[in-house]
Design brief:
InterPro entries: Ig-like_dom, Ig-like_dom_sf, Ig-like_fold, Ig_sub, Ig_V-set, Myelin_P0-rel
Family: Belongs to the myelin P0 protein family.
Number of domains: 2
Oligomer: single chain
Strand content: 25-35%
CATH topology of the largest domain: Immunoglobulin-like
Radius of gyration: 36 Å
Membrane topology: Single-pass type I membrane protein
Pfam families: V-set (PF07686)
Protein name: Myelin protein zero
CATH superfamily of the largest domain: Immunoglobulins
Number of helices: 2
Amino acid sequence: MLTFLALTSVALLGIVPEQSQAIAIYTGWERHALVGSDIRLSCSFFSWRWTSEDVTFSWTYRPDGSRDSISIFHYTGGAAYVDNKGPFRDRLEFVGNPGRRDGSILLKNLELNDNGTFTCDAKNPPDIVGRPSSVRLLVFEKVPIQAGVITGAIIGVVLGLLVLIVVIYYLMRFLVARRVFSLSVSKHGKKKKEGSQQRQIKV
C-alpha cells in the first residue's frame, strides 16, 4: 500500500505544471557616443533555470521629449527581427548570445536624433515575470574642446604634484640618512681621538 501511494505521489508531481519564478534584467544606466559612431547596448538577465530554447529579447525606444515608446527589435524562436518601420531599421544589428543570456544590440552611425531611452525585456520560459531594464543614450556632435583642455590640465597638475611629492619624499630620506651617517662618523672619530689621548697620558 505504501509503495502504491509513493508511486502515485511521484506521478502526480510529474504532471504538476512547472511554476514560474522572477527574472532579473540588467542594462547599463547611461551611455555616451559621438555622431557617426557605433555603440553597443548591453542586456542580460538572471534566472534560476537553465536558458530555455524559447528565450526571447525585446527592445523598445522612447525618444527624448516623447511619452511613447516604439518597438525596434525582437529575438524569438531562435531568430532576430529588426522592426522595418523604426528609426533604426537599417542601423541596428543583434550582437548578443541568447545561449549565454545576452541580448545586446549594436546601433550604427548614430545621429543627434537618436537621443533617448532604450528598454530591454527578456523572457526565459517558464520564467516570464520581470521588470524591463532601461538605458539612456546621449549622442554628442563632438567633444567640447574647452572641456578636454581643462580635463587634460587637471590631470597634468595632479600627476605633477604626485611626482613632486615622491621626489621630495626620497630627497628627505636621503638628507636624513646622510645626516645620520655624518653624525655617526663624527662620533666614532671623537671616541677614537679621546682613546688616543688617554693612552698618551698613561705613557
